[in-house]
Structures are given as C-alpha cells and as structure tokens.
Amino acid sequence: MPSTELVIGIDVGGTEIKAGVMRGAEVIYTERFPTGRENGADHAVNQVLLAASSLHQTFPEAAAIGVVVPGVVDAVNGIAIYSENIYFDHVPFKQLVHDLTGKPVAFGHDVRAGGVAETMYGAGKGYKNSFFMMIGTGIAGAVIIEGVLLDSPYGGEVGHMDVASGLPCACGLTGCLESISTGPSIAREYNKRADANFLGGREVLEASLSGDLVATEVWNSAVKAIGQVLTATVNLLAPEIIILGGGLSKAGSHLVDPIDQYIDSHLTFQPRPKIVLAKLGDSSGMIGAGIFALRALG
Ligand SMILES: [Zn+2]
Fold it and tell me: What are the two backbone dihedrals, phi and then psi, of residue 139, each rounded to the nearest 5 degrees?
C-alpha cells in the first residue's frame, strides 16, 4: 500500500462535512463545509461534491478520494442506501465523485472508517482485533478482526441490541441500547424523572458528580447498558481492545472505569480486552476516509 501518497478524505456528518488532505496519519490540510440537510438530500449531496471538487482543485496531485457517510452504506458499489439523518436515498456517491474529479474513489461508512483510523493510527495502534464503539446521538460499532474491517451494510449496529430498557427507540422497537445510552436519551430520561431541561449526557454526569442521586441513577443505567452490549461483543468477537469514541466519550474515566468494571465482573475464563478512549477525536471518520482512499488505489 503506497502510504506516501497524498489522499483526500471526506466525512459527511449531519451538521458538517469534514474534508482533509493527508499522507498516512499526517493531516496536512482540513476544510469544513455545512451539510445543509435542512435544505434536503439533494443539497447535501451537492455540498459533498463541492467539498470534493474544492479539495481536488487545491490538491490536484492527490491520488484518490475517500468519502464516508452515516446510515446504511453499500461500500462495494459506492452507494448511500439510506440515512435517517441526511435523508440519503440510494445516492451513488462513488460514481458521482469519480465523474467530477476523474480520481479513484472509495466509499464507506463513517463509524467503520473511524474504527479503522483509530485501530491503525489512534488508540488501537498495534492491535489486530478491535471493536470501536461510537456513542453520540446514536450508537454504532466497527468490528476489525485480524486487521480486516467487517464492512457489510448492516454490520456493527450495536445501538439496536436489546438491553431491556423498556424505552422506545427511534428504530421503532423498544429496549434498544440507543434508547437509554446516547447523550440525548440520557438527558431525556433525566428530564422525565427530574422535570428538568438538560440537553445532553454531559449535564447529567455533572449533576451526578455534584450529588444528584437521580442523575447518578440515570447515568449508571446508561453505562451499565453499554457494559452489557460490550460484554456480549467480547463473548462473540474477543477483541483485544475496545475503543470508545463519540460525544459521550468526553466523560473519560466516568465512562471507561464503570464499563471496565462491568465487563470484568461478567467474564470468567475469557481474556479481558483493554477499554480505552478514542484518540483521534472528530477527525477519525475523515482520516478513515483517507485510509479507504488509499485502498481504492489497490
Ligand atoms: Zn433501536
């Protein structure tokens, strides 16, 4: 793999598009564009193409372009099948970006790209078997076994594993991990019990740390549910390392330590994975898109 090649990575989020130019792990240029999803999916698609052509014009020597998006992704054919956030409906991004720039284009899923980036260059460097869990407004995972990413369109959807929360999930079911452990769902549960108006998990954690018992209960339930899903993941995949990313991972040891303890107390003969925080922050998807771009070069 020619890691000395300059590549463009584009990570399409619900609010903004992070685009960058990199050589291996070294990011040499970044630019952000508003996704503008409030103006509809066509506008968001045009914003992605604007990002691609803008960076392509600034760095014509870039060898390939990687684009990653949320939702259901067909990486092989380069199609954004479905996105709840940005309303993508079978958008052939790989073809569109190739037609626009003439460069080889790789396409993939944002969280799986983040998992690859964290495993190659971030918190999981040196490990071949890792599980990356992104906990933000949603929850998804990336599975890497013997250095190879599980890249099927529906792989890693741990946010919809049943933790018997009794709460409704955006997917239509009841009891999913996302119904209890995302930032917004932690806030929602606290607001319901305490008649408050918190916006995210961070406020609930802060209240808990200052002695609010309801906040502590809500936080602990959210973290325990994550521990349950990760314990199931350990039994199924035996990762050497579990990397926690996304907005909720800013809770640091308040997230990692109780999850570590939960997993430890629910394993007996199995080897314990290391539980760590992601290192690349919100650049992981963009850097992963760059890694995918390199792979498009063959
Ligand atoms: Zn669900």
Answer: -135, 130
